[in-house]
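Subject: design request, 489 residues
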């Protein structure tokens, strides 16, 4: 097949101005978003104020709109929003970054009313707003000091009461690019605003739940503290949170980075923010990795290694084992690695051990584990077992056969008719692997012919499946010849 010619700027210039203008005009007739971008580019010939005026009309229309966007029009709506932000960043941004930021903030401020009138289950519309937030930070880096100094006030005016969390996101995007004096003044204003708002909220008579802006403003203060390098203020603000909401690991990591190891050790061992639905036994790989590094920094290397090994035995974390081995002297790491592999094979839950051997990676030990526990594997794990079987089928056909059989048995036992195509493919794989497997299979495992006979006897009425495989051998469309067989035809 001939390769399509690549489009480049030089090749397009060869078409000539007239031809390019006609192509642009034709596409503008078909594509409303592209037409708006072309109009903005033309307006740019008259200066940034002309582009800003064009953008302002679109922003005003977006703010006034009330109609609900049906699900089948949500993609086009998101594309239209993206063309608007692209115009702001690509056309207005280079010429007048302050004007562009003003328009981006106006756009971001429309998010609450936009989300109320569109089904954004795909997240496309929200992605456009996040892109606008990141673009605001990028443009803030190019602002001269006076305009950068005025940015906090603009942000608070546009988004100061936004409950969606975008106010904190914008703060995080722009804070690294603001002068230190601006950050300090912004923090002081937020502190006063929190005090004033909390005093008003204390007089509320209703006992019902309500959203307080003070939580988002407090998060902004922590962002500003990080940008200012004020770790003590960051910690003081963190301590004001309820214990189960504190980011103990984040604070510990920052303390370790600046050499305050003793304080870091206290924070890493504190009960703090938890992952929903998970029990924290203190041996999560993230927590253990950080605590062990802190212990190393305090010269308590034996405690650090003991913690890493205890975590490995509990979680079978490949990353933690790598950290453990890295701290051992030469040659000792080899023996320790062998001990870890033996532990995973003999004393751990097979499912966890399998994931460990895949992560290490040691496919030979993964295959050995599968063959040692042939009835342990759940064919309902269709989202992971086919990939594992595919990794093993060429070099470890016995293990792959066990997994393919588990997958096929699950499909037929549960009469999952929508998966019959996959089942036929698995049967085709089993037929191709049969000759190699029959030469090495254990006595407790039936050969392929016997296995196929049992399938036919157990599932004779599943015509939708058998129609795909005929007499039990894969049809040409259902099976592919293995890559290791040489084609001499």
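Subject: RE: design request

Done. Sequence follows.
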């Amino acid at each position: 097949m001939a390769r399509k010619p690549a489009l480049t700027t030089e090749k397009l210039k060869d078409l000539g101005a007239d031809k390019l203008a006609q192509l642009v005009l034709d596409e503008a007739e078909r594509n409303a978003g592209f037409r708006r971008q072309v109009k903005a580019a033309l307006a740019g010939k008259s200066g940034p104020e002309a582009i800003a005026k064009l953008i302002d009309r679109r922003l005003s229309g977006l703010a006034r709109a009330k109609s609900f966007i049906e699900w089948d029009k949500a993609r086009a709506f998101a594309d239209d929003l993206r063309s608007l932000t692209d115009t702001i960043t690509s056309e207005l941004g280079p010429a007048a970054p302050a004007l562009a930021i003003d328009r981006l903030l106006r756009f971001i401020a429309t998010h609450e009313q936009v989300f109320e009138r569109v089904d954004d289950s795909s997240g496309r519309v929200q992605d456009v707003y996040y892109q606008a937030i990141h673009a605001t930070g990028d443009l803030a880096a190019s602002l001269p000091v006076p305009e950068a100094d005025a940015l906090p006030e603009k942000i608070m005016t546009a988004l100061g009461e936004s409950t969606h969390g975008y106010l904190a996101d914008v703060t995080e995007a722009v804070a690294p690019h603001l002068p230190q004096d601006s950050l300090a003044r912004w923090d002081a204003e937020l502190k006063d605003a929190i005090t004033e708002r909390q005093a008003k909220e204390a007089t509320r008579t209703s006992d019902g739940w309500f959203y307080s802006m003070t939580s988002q403003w407090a998060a902004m203060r922590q962002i500003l503290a990080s940008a200012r390098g004020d770790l003590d203020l960051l910690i003081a603000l963190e301590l004001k949170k309820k214990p189960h909401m504190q980011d103990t690991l984040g604070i510990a990591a920052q303390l370790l980075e600046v050499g305050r190891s003793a304080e870091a050790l206290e924070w890493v061992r504190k009960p703090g923010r938890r992952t929903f639905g998970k029990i924290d036994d203190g041996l999560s790989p993230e927590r253990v990795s950080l605590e062990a590094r802190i212990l190393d920094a305090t010269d308590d290397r034996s405690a650090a290694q003991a913690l890493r090994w205890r975590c490995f035995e509990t979680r079978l974390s490949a990353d933690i084992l790598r950290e453990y081995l890295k701290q051992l002297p030469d040659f000792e790491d080899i023996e320790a690695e062998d001990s870890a592999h033996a532990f995973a094979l003999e004393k751990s839950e097979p499912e966890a051990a399998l994931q460990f051997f895949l992560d290490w990676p040691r496919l030979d030990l993964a295959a050995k584990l599968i063959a040692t526990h042939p009835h342990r594997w759940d064919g309902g794990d269709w989202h992971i077992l086919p990939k594992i079987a595919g990794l093993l089928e060429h070099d470890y056909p016995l293990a792959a056969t066990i997994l393919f059989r588990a997958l096929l048995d699950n499909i037929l036992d549960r009469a999952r008719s929508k998966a019959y195509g996959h089942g036929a493919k698995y049967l085709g794989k089993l037929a191709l692997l049969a000759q190699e497997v029959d030469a090495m299979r254990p006595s407790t495992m039936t050969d392929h012919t016997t296995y196929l006979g049992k399938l036919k006897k157990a599932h004779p009425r599943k015509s939708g499946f058998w129609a795909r495989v005929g007499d039990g051998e894969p049809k040409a469309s259902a099976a592919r010849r293995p890559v290791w067989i040489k084609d001499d035809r």
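Confidence is low (pLDDT under 50) at residues 474-489.
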